[in-house]
User: What shape does this take?
Amino acid sequence: MYDHSSESLESARAQLLDRRARLAMLIGVPLFALNSLEPWFDFRDPSTFKIQLGADFLMLCLMCFSYTPWGSRHKLAIFTTGYLIAVAGYEAVVCHERAFNTAYSDGFPTIFAYYSILIPATVYRVGAVGIATILLTSIPEALITHDFGRVASAIGSDATPFVILLCGRHVANTLLARECV
Assistant: This one.
């Protein structure tokens, strides 16, 4: 038997994902470029500016690619890749400047909130991206400082915002399902 409610829910999710990913890219890419100035003012190192602008250029290329026929069908993968590039660029600045144990190295809740709130993905996918974010922001620091306790510390300190944001994503997905059924 054919389930019309499931079809309408998937169609609504696809449309919402397309709109949200497009909005997130249109907001995120310019703001990340503008945020490139912050490390310059804090560290006065042109390398930090170049690192963030390089990451922003890659994100801009992905954003342009998302407007192709193939890109429009794979918008979630493209946005997730761009998000992880932004996280990697951010962490590259932290590692380059050795800004460990500063506000720069504690940016997980802000970075992850951008993804988990704006992108209507499954809780499983959002959770996987959150874990990747935690690892991407803690493992390089642990390798550089030879203190692998930093990974456990990051997991411990990021657990609360991680769970709260996942619960928020679950609630948003549940409300979308109720609205479409």
Q: What stands out?
A: Helices lie at 4-35, 37-43, 46-65, 69-73, 75-97, 108-118, 123-145, 149-180. The mean pLDDT is 87. The chain has eight helices and no strands. The two ends are 17 Å apart (CA to CA).
